[in-house]
Design goal:
Length: 127
């Protein structure tokens, strides 16, 4: 299964989905012009991953900003891993946020309330 490695930009997040290395990361800002088109290959990859997942998946989000359309897509990504968790696989979500960014902290808390997967909220300091 080929990895997805999308470089982030000022409008799109960095995305690494690598089954072989066990790396599942989304970070940066997400406000693409066409959110459905941006996330389509991510969902295709996740659907394929769900067919033959690793025994354990640790998914890391480090979001600086996302718009409303992206928030729905992020939830859908989380929901895929929630399905995996509910099928008996080990899944953990790590939601990293700037300790000064209450909006991102609250977003992580809200997502944690919507899914069964354990979500670890981790604050960090920006130098």
């Amino acid at each position: 299964m080929d990895a997805i490695n999308i470089e982030g930009s000022s409008h799109t997040p960095k995305v690494i989905l690598d089954k072989d290395k066990g790396i599942f990361e989304i970070s940066g800002q997400s406000l693409p012009e066409n959110v459905a088109a941006f996330f389509a290959p991510i969902f295709e990859w996740l659907d394929a991953y769900m067919e033959d997942p690793n025994e354990e998946s640790v998914v890391s989000f480090t979001m600086e900003y996302f718009n409303t359309a992206s928030s729905k897509m992020i939830y859908e990504v989380l929901n895929k891993f929630d399905e995996l968790h509910n099928s008996g696989k080990k899944v953990k979500i790590i939601w990293k946020f700037d300790e000064e960014d209450e909006d991102m902290e609250e977003a992580g808390e809200e997502y944690a309330d919507m899914i069964d997967v354990p979500v670890e909220l981790v604050s960090y300091t920006v130098d």
